[in-house]
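Quarterly update from the structural biology core.
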Amino acid sequence: MKANLRRNLTAAVCFAFALGAALAFWNSSRPSGRATAQERRPTSFSPVATSESFDAVVKRMQADKPKVQERHTALLQERYDLSDRPTKGAAMSRGKKIQEGPRAKLARGATWESLAALSPHDICVKGLWPKGYLPLPHPNHAEGGMLFPKFHIDEIKKQEERDLARFDLDYDLPDHFLPEFPPPIYLTTRPDLGDVSQGKLVTMANFFELFDGILSPKQLDGLRLLLAPMAQQQFNLTDDRRSLKPSRGVTCFDCHVNGHTNAATHIVGDIRPQEFRHRIDTPSLRGVNIQRLFGSQRALKSVEDFTEFEQRAAYFDSDPVAATKKGVTILERGSQVHAMAEFQELLDFPPAPKLDVLGRLDPEKATEAELRGEALFHGKAKCAVCHPAPYYTDNLMHNLKVERFYNPQLVNGRMASADGPIKTFPLRGAKDSPPYLHDGRLLTLEDTVEFFNLVLQIKLTAAEKADLSAFLRCL
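Predicted structure, tokenized:
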């Protein structure tokens, strides 16, 4: 028995030595730091246990930041005319100028008219689809995460001393293509008050002062929760955040500013692998009370579903393991979620003085061009098939099958392929909500007209497109 025991111990020692040697060789032969791409396999989960110190991550990502942003800036400049060129005589609700003209660049020798004369197959084969109408990547698509315009970061830091800046990345689109800041707030319950925000960004610091006496106690508490910071994938207290200091998190109204939008971006949480995840252009919450679907592709059936989904899933890339580590806040459906939803359902569209009670143009207030545009909208342009008056949505999902026009391609980490069904967003107040489409790839209303002229193959003339754009600015 003793002999057997000695033999077993000797074998165990030899095995341990061999295993240690193999591990030492493996570690010495692989790059230091994170696993190589060949060693990683596709997974639905995010890393939870960090292998790099926070200081090392900051140093590495800050060193990479200039080349990451340079690559994305080059993409934007290749795709778009980014100059500040406002439309004359047209503005958003608080006076910010609206940008003019289609901004997507065309291939050399191509015109909008020549493109419209081609079939989707010919456009695809000849490689003529405007690059600006391909899916738009996140500024760093492989990394992703919430990203806020600088004007919003600055105001939140001023009011709350909460920093929404990321050490690895800055927002990408120029300010003149974004909604006005801060946007006005209109309430369905008090239309007589006009803009109840008084021109201010509503935050935890001022909401009670602004809304006490206007909202019910339950609605006030719902607004408070919409303004309360909650941990999020990039902004939290853990060592795998993307803020220099530990963060209290983000709020619903950090993206849906004043119940509208500041065009903050993110990538969807419910698609894998990473390169197939879509960039998000934050939609407005105005008119939530008339909507029946929520989320650009998720088809959530109530604003309560949307509210709970956003905080418990979208904040953490739909990864409950990461959420547990970073500090998910479980909202109580019957009281907290309900109160948050009730406030959201009070958010109204901006005034549209040229529309009558049925959402159609008043002939005594509209110009001839706007009236011609309305006729096109409900006729030749086919817009009203999906965007009927008075709110200009059918509350359905539609698949535009834009992939007919181009071959699948990887663009800065984003696989440009089929988008699938997208919900019909309301067009009421569209002039206040640039950029357009679910990922913000269309910078202006004119880009939207050109995009759908090609996708629906309706062959509008230049004059008809101008009239249609004029009508859209009335909604």
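The longest helix spans residues 2-29.
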